[in-house]
Amino acid sequence: MAQNPEFSLDGMTVGYFRGQPRAAGCYSYLPCRGPGHRRMGELLREGGVPTCYYDDGKQRISFEVRGRPAYGQLELDGFRFLMRTKNDA
Question: Which of 49, 68, 50, 43 is nearest to 7 (CA)?
Fold first, then answer.
């Protein structure tokens, strides 16, 4: 598993975690400036709940972004784990 997994929203990179989140809580991340990070911010400002994901090689881990309490911090919840198969891209 990657130490600092890249996570995405609708196929667009949002950033990189510092660690490997798997449960509700606040996590540090390094933003990747671009359309994915911008879209996540727009959804949060509009009161939405972006669902992002990252892959660890064996699973796709998806989660809800509930807020950004501080720069470089995300409040995450609603984790789901989907086992990947050989046919998954």
Answer: 50
Token readout for 49 is: 């709940």
Most distant pair of Cα atoms in the chain: their distance = 39
Are the C-beta atoms of residues 77 and 24 closer than 8 Å to each other?
yes
pTM assigned to the model: 0.89
Whether 24 maps to a domain, the answer reads: yes
Number of domains in the chain: 1
Residue 16 in contact with residue 32, Cβ under 8 Å?
Answer: yes
Q: Which residues constitute the domain of residue 24?
A: 6-83
- Tell me how far apart the alpha carbons of residues 18 and 28 are, in angstroms, rounded to a whole number: 6
Assigned domain for 1 exists: no
Q: What is the pLDDT of residues 30-63, one digit of tens each?
A: 999 999 999 999 999 999 999 999 998 889 999 9
Please give the sequence-ordered ranges of beta strands (E in DSSP) within 1-89, or none if there are none.
6-9, 12-17, 25-31, 51-55, 59-67, 73-83
